[in-house]
């Protein structure tokens, strides 16, 4: 029976020490300021990683009053309490945290939109290309009108595509 006793190793987490709450005085507590695009021009700024000794509701109240925006505190199972604010408030929140809450600027980590690869942005399907050519012949260089007809494309993308591909071929 002792020969059949096989020790099954448990999963090893190399970052367990860094994630532990009592990892010691040497651990730095970073404050993450993120921006997420909702739709079109609307965005959402989130603040995560403030010390637990701070009252998130009081900080939110001051942020809303100071920057004239709406917001809420959300409880996330992985991230803990997260402050969400409407709009791009990254610069405002960072100066507020440094001046009022006394967070060191070096401990602020900024995250922005996921950058898309430029080559994949400029890849248009045959249907999109035909529509751009037809719309260009109708309305000219009114890129915002053309972009309104192609879902998921901005006027800048279409103009860049036109200048790089179509204008050289004609």
Automatic annotation (TrEMBL):
Residues 116-170 form the HTH myb-type domain. Keywords: Developmental protein, DNA-binding, Membrane, Nucleus, Protein biosynthesis, Transcription, Transcription regulation, Translation regulation, Transmembrane, Transmembrane helix. Residues 31-101 form the SUI1 domain. One of its GO terms (molecular function) is DNA binding. Residues 116-166 form the Myb-like domain. The keyword 4Fe-4S does not apply. Probably involved in translation. Belongs to the SUI1 family. This is Uncharacterized protein.
């Amino acid at each position: 029976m002792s020969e059949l006793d096989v020790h099954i190793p448990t999963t090893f987490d190399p970052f367990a020490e860094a994630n532990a709450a009592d990892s010691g005085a040497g651990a730095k507590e970073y404050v993450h300021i993120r921006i997420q695009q909702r739709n079109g021009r609307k965005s959402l700024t989130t603040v995560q990683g403030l010390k637990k000794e701070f009252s998130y509701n009081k900080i939110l109240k001051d942020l809303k009053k100071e920057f004239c925006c709406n917001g809420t505190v959300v409880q996330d199972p992985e991230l803990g309490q997260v402050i969400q604010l409407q709009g791009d408030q990254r610069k405002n929140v960072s100066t507020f945290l440094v001046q009022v809450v006394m967070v060191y600027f070096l401990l602020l980590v900024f995250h922005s939109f996921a950058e898309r690869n430029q080559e994949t942005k400029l890849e248009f399907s045959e249907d999109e290309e035909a529509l751009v050519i037809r719309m260009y012949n109708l309305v000219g260089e009114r890129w915002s009108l053309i972009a309104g007809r192609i879902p998921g494309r901005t006027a800048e993308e279409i103009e860049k595509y036109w200048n790089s591909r179509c204008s050289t071929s004609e």
